[in-house]
């Protein structure tokens, strides 16, 4: 199983952050992880449509960071119908792996 762990993408659609999303997609396309885990801080500008492109490629699980759009993260589902956002202290299980996190 391949797991990609990321944090603090801070995608804001300006400056070098514009390239961050494309960079992430290129990494996912190249390495084809089974799961992408995020410690949050995707950025406040990432849209549901952009996330859907990522969700077509891998399962994504994330905790909420202080630079996230909670409305977007809360609305997202993986192709296996599990929620992307893992609430503080909750446990998500995928492929037998139990994942949890706490927002700091």
Question: Could you characterize what this model shows?
Answer:
This protein has 104 residues and is α/β, with parallel strands linked by helices. It has a single domain (3-100), classed as Purple Acid Phosphatase, chain A, domain 2 (4-Layer Sandwich), CATH 3.60.21. The chain is built from three helices and five strands. The strands form two sheets. It has a three-stranded parallel β-sheet, with no helix packed on it. It has a two-stranded antiparallel sheet with strand order 4-5. A hairpin with a 2-residue loop joins strand 4 (91-94) and strand 5. 24% of the residues are buried. The mean pLDDT is 92.
DSSP summary, beta strand count: 5
Number of domains: 1
Remind me, CATH topology?
Answer: Purple Acid Phosphatase, chain A, domain 2
Helix-strand sequence = EHEHEHEE
Structural features:
about 100 residues; Purple Acid Phosphatase, chain A, domain 2; three-stranded parallel β-sheet; two-stranded antiparallel sheet; globular
Blueprint of the fold:
Elements lengths: L2 E4 L10 H15 L3 E4 L9 H8 L3 E4 L7 H6 L15 E4 L2 E4 L4
Parallel strand pairs: 1-2, 2-3
Antiparallel strand pairs: 4-5
């Amino acid at each position: 199983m391949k797991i990609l762990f990321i944090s603090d993408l801070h995608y804001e659609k300006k400056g070098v952050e514009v390239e961050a999303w494309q960079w992430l997609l290129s990494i996912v396309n190249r390495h084809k992880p089974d799961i992408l885990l995020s410690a949050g801080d995707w950025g406040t500008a990432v849209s549901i449509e952009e996330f859907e492109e990522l969700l077509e490629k891998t399962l994504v699980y994330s905790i909420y960071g202080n630079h996230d759009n909670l409305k977007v993260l809360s609305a997202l589902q993986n192709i296996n119908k599990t929620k992307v956002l893992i609430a503080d202290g909750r446990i998500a299980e995928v492929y037998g792996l139990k994942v949890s996190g706490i927002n700091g």
